[in-house]
Amino acid sequence: MDTLNRNHLKQAIITVLQDYLKFLGKDLDNEIQLIIDEKQKHYLLVETGWQKNRRIYGNLIHIDLINDKIWIQQDGTEEGIANELVKQGISPQQIVLAFKTPERRKITDFAVS
Description:
alpha+beta; TATA-Binding Protein; globular
């Protein structure tokens, strides 16, 4: 895959994650962090903070770029991050729902691997 297409995939991921970050807004007790590791090609939205004396920590969204495909490792959204990436012009065949078993992936509109 050429550099132009890889850059398109990366930019689509970052755009969608930034949109979710804006949508979730700011909370005095919790923080949503956008973590981008371009060298290892990891992209995450992580929530940290406190709620009624209880620690909050978790990955809302975790995406990796592997072999020129977008691998969605964790999707804590209602709509589905894959659908948002398709709206950004990414082909469903370039998106792997890694949080589903390979057998379940076969019955989706997205790539198996």
